[in-house]
Write a structure and sequence with these properties.
Blueprint (H helix, E strand, L loop, with lengths): L4 H7 L2 H7 L1 H8 L4 H17 L1 H13 L14 H15 L47 H4 L7 H33 L8 E7 L2 E7 L5 E3 L2 H16 L18 H4 L16 H11 L6 H10 L24 E7 L6 H16 L2 E5 L3 H15 L13 E4 L20 E4 L1 H13 L8 E6 L11 H20 L9 E7 L6 H6 L4 E4 L7 E7 L2 E4 L5 E4 L10 H15 L10 E4 L3 H14 L9 H15 L7 H6 L4 E4 L5 H12 L5 E4 L2 H5 L6 E4 L3 E2 L2 E2 L2 H8 L13 E7 L2 H12 L12 H12 L8 H6 L4 H5 L3 H20 L3 E4 L2 E4 L1 H8 L4 H16 L7 H7 L8 E2 H9 L3 H10 L3 H8 L4 E2 L13 H27 L4 H8 L3 H24 L3 H16 L3 H9 L7 H9 L5 H5 L3 H16 L4 H45 L2 H5 L7 H14 L13 H9 L1
Parallel strand pairs: 4-9, 4-10, 5-7, 5-8, 6-7, 8-9, 11-20, 14-16, 14-17, 15-16, 17-20
Antiparallel strand pairs: 1-2, 2-3, 11-12, 12-13, 18-19, 21-22, 23-24
Helix pairs in contact: 2-4, 4-5, 4-39, 5-6, 8-47, 11-14, 12-13, 15-16, 20-22, 26-29, 26-30, 30-38, 33-35, 38-39, 39-40, 40-41, 41-43, 43-44
């Protein structure tokens, strides 16, 4: 049945909940709600009971404001929110409706009640009540009290509130003192100090020496610490505080032992010896190229990094106290760009303690970079011999994300790797919350800067750089005292055109460019059976003809394998890798089948190592959630596979690993492989000058050809790129592409994206006045520097003014006397990362659901977090079949969401597929309003189709069955799942900003389920163990076998886990082979280790909380006259902790947020007090 508990929740105030008995309400409806509603109702009840004065009126208002039959008007759907905001402000200004009576003693909750302890309304003075009359001396107290005097109960309540406010002030003062002591003990370096990590459930202190070696606590650690202290004293480096950074690294003991070095030696840059050795062992890097050394000299301020006696770069005449320092360099693929940025970040981290953010475009590159940096730099949980730096990745598939911190970034993380969307959230936290948790962020690396011109995500990258520039320059402008804030931004790319616009845009950035490529790359053009040079000036050779290969594609691949066999490379080397780029996904699969069917074979095909590797890849794919594709089953035994977005993440990971190991020699892929994955190859073949339906451009061509001839791989002494064309006309086009100059950069901050960027800048308080917009906002846009003429710049300023008017019209901002302030709705849109058009759809859906939500299943909740835009093709035949097969409770949800069978039938008569580009029927074009109504109905039906798919996915329906039912491929389902996870977080943030606590609490559990695609009973397990690749089917098998939690898995043994996994796999593929059996055992061992790491992290958090409580107890025992006066303060340590925690929760604060709203200068003044 359809249960509408939210009708009850949002219509009752806090007092009504207490009177009605929330426990009985919870007990009566919990049976039909499922796990989501249980957690949601408990949290909603707690929130509403604590926020009755501030939120009951708003919730009751939304309940009373019933939506009209046609929905909210498109131009005034925020009027209800504005009215509620005005009513809330009136209530806060006049807390009692009875004048200045006793009602004015009520505690006035701040606006950001559920956020942080920032500001409080000054309470009215409460006079001491007269002492009560003695018993029997004059009758009862009720008879002696005058008419209209406050009752004793009300007086005692006022005194109790006053006492709690006094305790809150004292507690806040004590916490500021605690933070002051913490800041004094903060070391601005990562060498020569004690750190801690959790191992096997225990916190293990380690000492990181000045040599960059981590020692466990013991004699060696203490002896090393004493030696390092003497060295730091000689260097005039203090143990803690502002003077604890290492300004002159060349004075370090290990640098004194280095012989005279040149800049191409890694030791010249003062790296610890063990990190230099780690670079050699893991990446084969023994030194720098000349261009890398020159680039480091250009980008580094030598006088600040210990090179006082070295000649500085020409750019060093600029002032060294620039708050925003940016370096941009461009080098070809495989030129070693990443190493330059890594050295800059590592030096600032080791010697100054400045944490770093590494921005990467795709999730796959984040995961690859995470493993590479952990191997080289060390990690507190990975290696005890390196510098114990903690490196984490933050993206849609990461399991370490936590709420309430900087995009999941805790203070213990030294380097954060993130995609554009995650880094944008980190920057928002950095800008809006400049406190002790973000003041030591000093380095930001931007990889693939050319993506600023990308149509889909380029605006995010430009907005990140815009906010960093305004933030850094704004902090130095408002600084009155304290240390100067300096932010170093490093941008790199392989396909950047002229760097002059970027130099002026990024505040006179230091730029460097080179054409050096360690492995030469040669271009060829294939015309018919002949291979021509890239300039078409000569015929290189005729391509041999193989049986069944008229296009001679297989022959071009077979040549590489034959050459490698003649040289004598190992069978498992990657010297034979060939990547064939195709225009479409279907063409990729056809090419893979063609090459496999016409492959003549080489001696390596019979090698035992090669055969076992290919068979293991087949076994793993067969046991994956999507099963083994028939095409891959035919092609992989021949060493051929395909790679495109239609594959699941598990399939892509297996194929990429097999290609790197040399078990697969040919990979047929789309152009997305060139930018998303770092797969080196000996030869690259481009089968068409088209990418989908678009022509191939010079930038994408260089990205594709850059996969050939990568440095550091076996057989990579040269690279070859072959462009296949049909005739002489296409050959000339290919020649022009090879020699073409890169097109200029373009800005994507136009139209609605520019409006949203302005809104975000205003909400972050980077611009607060109208007259600041031309000089502070417009002049920092990339378009301003790409359009040097005055007329274009004036047009840009006019466009920005129009954007501000639209924001004011839609009530996102308010403009009074030239002062710009954001409204709660504007902040909700800005900080939730929703687009403006998406926010309007989400707002309507949430407001409509708040009056009556159906909780018989999670279908209605899923409809609220399904992305407004998605790439799932909607087949009307499948849609109608699903609609007709719905259960009654699901049909009620569909009706509540506005799904109409008549609309589907009318569309099915004209189309077989539905999309956002479906034209409006003629019968609905009579008026613009009617056409817009039909388009809104189309969006609703497209969105609900994806909701049904997600609903079945979370019910545990296998991916192949889902793909067959909805007529999509498994990769598209996983892409929808990933997008929905991010969108769910946006909607939850949107609700929290609007103080819709009940809806936020109900939607929050869906985020974990969507991130794993697992049923609720294994969602937590799958989410926490996603870093070890635990599939949903295996998690269900472990749960069925009795291992129902991560703790249970951590306490299990390898044999037990291996037995469970083998039994689960046997249902899919029969009896496993010996090689696959070994793989399962190794996987079981990795799952147990991953579970132990998760448990260790949880224990570390508990130990940190215990330390905080112990410190609070110590401070409490030292005294406080007011605290000791109350009976509650004389209780035990446990009672003291409970009292303090209850006090903080009641006043809406958090112990870690006491510095919110303070500038770094104010924090420095606190530390120096």
């Amino acid at each position: 049945m359809a249960c509408t508990v939210f009708d009850m929740c949002i219509s009752l105030s806090g007092e009504d909940f207490h009177d009605a008995g929330l426990g009985s309400v919870t007990a009566s409806v919990r049976e039909g709600m499922g796990s989501i509603l249980g957690a949601a109702l408990d949290e909603a009840a707690s929130i509403i009971s604590h926020t009755s004065n501030a939120t009951s009126m708003n919730l009751a208002f939304w309940t009373s404001a019933k939506p009209t039959a046609g929905g909210l008007p498109s131009d005034d759907y925020y009027s209800c929110l504005v009215a509620a905001e005005a009513a809330s402000s009136r209530k806060q200004r006049y807390p009692s409706a009875h004048g200045s009576g006793s009602g004015s003693d009520d505690l006035i909750l701040p606006e950001n009640y559920a956020g942080y302890l920032k500001s409080y309304s000054k309470p009215d003075k409460v006079e001491e009540p007269p002492p009560p009359a003695a018993r029997g001396s004059g009758g009862s107290r009720a008879n002696t009290r005058g008419i209209g005097a406050p009752s004793p109960l009300r007086e005692r309540a006022g005194l109790e509130r006053k006492r709690k406010r006094d305790q809150a002030r004292q507690y806040k003062s004590k916490m500021r003192s605690k933070v002051r002591q913490m800041l004094k003990k903060q070391a601005h370096r990562r060498l020569g100090l004690w750190r801690s990590r959790v191992l096997d459930g225990d916190r293990v202190p380690i000492y990181v020496s000045l040599d960059g070696i981590a020692y466990p606590r013991g004699r060696d650690a203490y002896v090393t610490q004493e030696r390092d202290q003497k060295a730091l004293t000689r260097m005039s480096v203090s143990e803690f505080g502002p003077n604890s950074c290492i300004v002159s690294p060349r004075a370090l003991p290990y640098c004194q032992q280095y012989p005279p070095l040149t800049p191409v030696d890694l030791r010249f840059w003062h790296l610890p010896p063990n990190i230099v050795e780690a670079y050699r062992l893991s990446s084969g890097i023994t030194g720098l190229y000349t261009w890398q050394a020159d680039c480091l000299k250009t980008l580094l301020d030598c006088t600040l990094f210990g090179f006082e006696d070295q000649p500085v770069s020409p750019a060093s005449h600029r002032p060294l106290d620039r708050p925003f320092k940016c370096g941009v360099y461009c080098a070809p693929t495989s030129g070693g760009k990443s190493l330059v940025a890594e050295l800059i970040m590592l030096r600032r981290l080791l010697f100054r303690g400045l944490r770093g953010v590494y921005t990467l475009p795709y999730v796959s590159i984040c995961q690859e970079k995470l493993q590479q940096l952990r191997r080289v730099w060390g990690d507190s949980g990975q290696s005890a011999s390196l510098a114990a730096l903690r490196i984490e990745a933050f993206h849609s598939n990461a399991s370490v994300d936590k709420e309430g911190v900087i995009g999941g970034w805790t203070a213990g993380v030294d380097v954060a790797l993130g995609t554009l969307e995650k880094v944008n959230g980190m920057v928002n936290r950095l800008v809006s919350q400049a406190d002790s948790s973000t003041s030591n962020v000093g380095t930001v690396i931007i990889d693939e800067l050319h993506m600023v011109g990308d149509e889909q995500r380029g605006h995010i990258l430009e907005l990140i750089l815009l906010k960093l520039m305004l933030f850094a320059t704004g902090r130095v402008t408002s600084a009155s005292s304290g240390e100067l804030y300096q932010l170093q931004v490093v941008c790199m790319s392989a396909t950047l055109p002229s760097l002059d616009p970027l130099k002026s845009w990024l505040l006179e950035a230091d730029v460097y460019t080179t054409e050096f490529r360690p492995v030469p790359l040669e271009y060829f053009v294939k015309v018919g059976p002949r291979l021509h040079s890239g300039d078409l000036d000569r015929v290189v050779r005729d391509i041999p003809l193989l049986q069944g290969d008229p296009d001679r594609i297989t022959a071009l691949i077979w040549e590489v394998a034959q050459e490698a066999c003649s040289v004598g490379y190992d069978a498992a080397s990657n010297a034979t890798g060939v990547i064939v780029f195709c225009a479409t996904k279907a063409w990729c699969e056809k090419t893979a089948v063609h090459v496999a069917s016409t492959w003549p074979g080489v001696p390596w095909d019979l090698d035992d190592t090669m055969l076992r590797g290919r068979q293991q890849a087949l076994d793993i794919l067969r046991a994956s959630p999507a099963g083994l594709c028939p095409t891959l089953e035919k092609s992989i035994p021949k060493g051929v596979a395909y790679h495109h977005s239609g594959l699941t993440m598990e399939e892509r990971r297996v194929i990429e690993t097999a290609f790197r190991n040399g078990h697969i020699h040919t990979l047929c892929a789309t152009s997305t492989l060139a930018a998303g994955v770092n797969l080196p190859a000996r030869r690259v073949i481009i089968r068409s000058l088209q990418v989908g339906i678009s022509p191939l451009d010079a930038s994408r061509l260089r990205q594709m050809c850059g996969r050939a001839g990568r440095a550091g791989f076996t057989g990579s002494n040269k690279g070859e790129a072959i462009l296949c064309v049909k005739d002489d006309r296409e050959a000339r086009t290919a020649k022009d592409l090879i020699n073409a100059q890169l097109t200029g950069l373009s800005s994507r901050l136009t139209g609605d994206l520019l409006t949203r960027a302005l809104l975000e800048i205003i909400c972050l308080k980077l611009v607060s006045r109208v007259d600041e917009i031309p000089g502070r906002f417009c002049s920092r846009l990339l378009r301003y520097h790409l359009q040097p003429d005055q007329e274009s710049r004036e047009g840009l300023q006019s466009e920005v003014s129009t954007c501000l008017e639209e924001l004011e019209k839609d009530r996102f901002v308010k403009v009074n006397d030239g002062l710009i302030t954001s409204t709660p709705l504007g902040e909700a849109v800005a900080f939730s990362s929703l687009k403006i058009e998406e926010a309007s759809v989400v707002f309507r859906a949430l407001r409509h659901a708040s009056s009556r939500i159906l909780l018989s299943s999670d279908l209605h909740l899923l409809s609220l977090v399904t992305p407004v835009r998605h790439d799932i093709p909607v087949h009307l035949e499948a849609y109608l079949n699903l609609y007709n097969a719905m259960a009654p409770d699901q049909r009620a949800v569909a009706d509540r969401c506005g799904i109409s069978e008549g609309f589907l039938n009318s569309c099915a008569r004209r189309n077989t597929l539905l999309s956002r580009s479906t034209p409006v029927p003629v019968c609905h074009r009579k008026t613009p309003e009617e056409a817009r109504a039909w388009q809104r109905q189309l969006v609703t039906h497209l969105r609900f189709y994806a909701t049904l798919l997600l609903h079945h996915l979370l019910k545990g329906v296998p991916l192949p069955m889902l793909a067959s039912t909805y007529k999509v491929n498994c990769g598209q389902i996983q892409q929808l799942q990933s997008t929905s996870t991010a969108f769910c977080g946006m909607v939850v943030g949107f609700c929290e900003r609007l103080r819709w606590w009940a809806l936020a609490a109900a939607l929050t559990p869906l985020s974990e389920q969507l991130s794993t695609g697992a049923p609720s009973f294994v969602a937590e397990m799958t989410s926490k163990l996603s870093h070890v690749g635990l599939p949903v089917s295996w998690a269900i098998a472990l749960h069925s076998a009795g291992l129902e939690s991560v703790t249970a898995i951590a306490g299990s043994d390898t044999d037990t886990l291996h037995r469970i996994l083998a039994r689960a796999v046997s249902h899919q593929r029969g009896r496993p082979t010996q090689d696959f059996n070994n793989y399962l055992r190794e996987t079981a061992r990795n799952i147990i280790v991953g579970a132990q790491e998760v448990v260790n992290a949880q224990v570390a958090e508990i130990l940190e909380e215990a330390d905080e409580c112990r410190a609070s107890d110590d401070e409490e025992s030292d005294g406080g006259s007011s605290s000791s006066s109350s009976p509650s303060t004389t209780s035990s340590g446990s009672g003291s902790r409970d009292r303090q925690q209850g006090l903080v929760e009641e006043l809406g604060g958090d112990a870690n947020s006491l510095l919110d709203g303070l500038t770094p200068e104010e924090i420095n003044s606190l530390a120096a007090a």
